[in-house]
């Protein structure tokens, strides 16, 4: 289960991802929760939509893990997709999170994985800290009125028909 | 499980539309995507559909939707569908991981009753395989295709599908006409947020 993430965690995630991008020259790096939530990101890539990519990466990784189970392989720790201009690597951080990296295909995937190795350790350590943190910083929702979200989402008004 | 990011003031919630093949799960998402009123239309997320060449859902459909509801927290709802076809059961299990709320979309046509019941049973089995229990997950039922002929009475559908210890909310819908689609979406978000309020009150 994913722990509650606070400012300290995000600051640490940011430092690790920033360092990873600098060292590896990767274009974009994402921390993704396994249900598909984007937790944090660093870097840029034209036309890149991190929310969608996070969801697709987590589900694709889940599919490869399922395949691993079927062939009795206990450790599919990563997934590599080679492209002509951009390639991606998705790596296991811990049971709740993944690291997704998009990088120019001219770069060595071996080098990318090497730099990711240290980042994964640091991210896993921070997630462990978050998991151990006392749950005293929960959101106080006690004064929220449930009636206030009776119709959270509304249908847009139908277009006016011409006379 | 929902992700609470206190640094960015975001609450992430995953809702899965489940049900038999061709019951209208993808249509629900398409209609929400096409018609939801947003403050900033340019920021409306894309609808991602991983479908076969014949437009049947292969992996899932996905659409992110956000609203500010909880004391400054942006709540990001991730709406998913599963493939309804029997052969894609593994995929349904994958999509159910981390689910917070479920909309079971039933086909109201008489000749689909067996498929409805089988899909509901399959939902419970798949949750069990993930060490989850339907009793602990907010869910609602949508009786879709109410605009077609040869449909079962709602009382019969209720008898077949909503007969568990806890009676859950149900909504009649004709998703192709956007009827009942937003009522359903608001129904499940309301249940989910009420659950978070109860948990938050306990944790705070």
Spell out the blueprint of helices and strands.
The complex is a heterodimer of chains A (163) and B (204).
Chain A: H1 7-24, E1 28-33, E2 38-43, H2 50-70, E3 78-81, E4 86-94, E5 97-104, H3 109-132
Antiparallel strand pairs in A: 1-2, 1-5, 3-4, 4-5
Helix pairs in contact in A: 1-3
Chain B: E1 3-5, E2 10-18, H1 25-35, E3 48-51, E4 57-70, E5 73-81, H2 89-96, E6 101-107, H3 113-129, E7 139-144, H4 154-161, E8 170-172, H5 181-203
Parallel strand pairs in B: 2-5, 2-6, 6-7, 7-8
Antiparallel strand pairs in B: 1-2, 3-4, 4-5
Helix pairs in contact in B: 2-3
Question: How would you explain this protein's 3D organization?
Answer:
The complex is a heterodimer of chains A (163) and B (204). Chain A is α+β, with helices and mostly antiparallel strands and 163 residues long. Chain A has three helices and five strands, in the order H-E-E-H-E-E-E-H. A five-stranded antiparallel β-sheet of chain A has the order 2-1-5-4-3, with helices on both faces. In chain A, a hairpin with a 2-residue loop joins strand 4 and strand 5 (97-104). Chain A is globular. By secondary structure, chain B is α/β, with parallel strands linked by helices. Helix content of chain B is 33%, strand content 27%. In chain B, strands 1, 2, 3, 4, 5, 6, 7 and 8 form an eight-stranded mixed β-sheet that branches. In chain B, helix 2 (89-96) crosses helix 3. The longest helix of chain B is centred in the last third of the chain and has 23 residues, at 181-203. Chain B is globular and about 50 Å long. The two termini of chain B are 18 Å apart. The interface between A and B is large, with 43 and 52 residues.
């Amino acid at each position: 289960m994913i722990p509650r993430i606070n400012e300290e965690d995000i600051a640490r995630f940011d430092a690790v991802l920033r360092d990873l991008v600098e060292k590896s020259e990767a274009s974009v790096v994402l921390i993704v929760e396994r249900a598909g939530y984007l937790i944090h990101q660093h870097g840029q890539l034209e036309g890149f939509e991190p929310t969608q990519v996070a969801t697709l990466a987590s589900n694709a990784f889940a599919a490869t893990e399922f395949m691993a189970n079927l062939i009795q392989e206990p450790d599919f720790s990563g997934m590599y997709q080679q492209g002509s201009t951009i390639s991606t690597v998705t790596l296991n951080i811990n049971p709740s999170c993944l690291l997704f990296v998009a990088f120019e295909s001219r770069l060595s995937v071996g080098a990318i994985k090497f730099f990711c190795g240290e980042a994964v350790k640091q991210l896993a350590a921070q997630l462990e800290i978050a998991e151990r943190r006392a749950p005293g910083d929960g959101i106080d929702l006690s004064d929220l009125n449930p009636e206030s979200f009776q119709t959270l989402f509304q249908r847009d008004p139908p277009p006016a028909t011409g006379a | 499980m929902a992700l609470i990011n206190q640094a960015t003031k975001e609450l992430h919630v995953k809702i899965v539309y489940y049900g038999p093949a061709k019951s209208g799960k993808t249509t629900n998402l398409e209609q929400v995507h096409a018609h939801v009123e947003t403050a900033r239309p340019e920021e409306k997320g894309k609808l991602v559909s991983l479908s076969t060449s014949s437009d049947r859902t292969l992996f899932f459909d996905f659409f992110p939707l956000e609203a500010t509801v909880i004391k400054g927290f942006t709540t990001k709802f991730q709406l998913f569908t599963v493939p309804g076809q029997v052969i894609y059961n593994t995929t349904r299990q994958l999509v159910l991981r981390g689910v917070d709320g479920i909309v079971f979309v039933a086909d109201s046509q008489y000749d689909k009753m067996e498929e409805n019941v089988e899909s509901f049973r399959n939902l419970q089995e798949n949750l069990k395989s993930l060490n989850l229990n339907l009793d602990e997950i907010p869910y609602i039922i949508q009786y879709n295709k109410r605009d077609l002929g040869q449909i079962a009475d709602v009382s019969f559908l209720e008898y077949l599908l909503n007969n568990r210890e806890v009676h859950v909310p149900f909504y009649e819908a004709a998703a192709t006409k956007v009827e009942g689609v937003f009522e359903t979406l608001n129904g499940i978000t309301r249940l989910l947020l009420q659950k978070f309020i109860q948990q938050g009150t306990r944790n705070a």
